[in-house]
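User: Sequence in, structure out. Go.
Assistant: Echoing your sequence, followed by the structure tokens.
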Amino acid sequence: MAANSTPEAEGDRLFIHYGPKQRLIAWISRTFFDNVTYTVRHGKLAGLKRRGGLGWLPGFVTESNPNAEEMFWRNIDLKGRTAYDIGAFHGLLTLLFSQRAKEVVAFEPNAKNRARLQDNLAINGIGNVKVRGVALGAEAGTAHMLWDAAAPGGARVVSGKGAGDSIEIGTLDQELAAGLAPPDFIKIDVEGFERQVLAGGRETFMRLHPELFIEIHGNSMNEKKQNVAEVVKLLCSFGYQRIVHIETGTVIDETNSDIAARGHLHCPRNAG
């Protein structure tokens, strides 16, 4: 900790989500391979086709020991189930879900990312995925999505007028009321918009208790702690009986949510 620094000040220090290495890799991928179609050679998507990215490289070049998140995806069982991918980006997890689930609904409001997602589905001849071009939030409306071309996976939704692309926002409860198949499993990766997604699906979560995977975001450690505390509070109010921090295996409740400020939460479907 730097001289004259306090724990509070350190907690407010902004994260650099995409450092020089990640930005360099993204630039190489975007500049030289963005329109290259290939068969993925390693990892959870091995054997599937993809446009863009560096999945054509041998595994020993890009893969290291699998972390807890990677092991979660490798072992997930979606047989006969309906999976939702909220914040689908280019559809890498959507592709995985399509191979294991009965049907998939992918939500991606960013038009450029959504086009790449649809490309990846088309080149694999996948027909069990429905793509929705809306963001999910606490209430219906419009907002703006800010994103950096050097790190398109970090796009985030901001309310009101401003820079960025205008997007439509709906709610999970409205989507189901309009006729979407009820979800058995939901992945949420929405760059800090987690609370809003959950709030807009209160009826769905309380009635169905689908299995959940939630990535925790925030621009600083204090913001992440606040975010995860509010997420856990919502999940408890929905009646989820078990909330687990994937990275440590710790069972999380409202008294120890700080543990999960880094990483991911998993909520199994309630028994019975």
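User: And one key feature?
Assistant: The longest strand covers residues 151-159.
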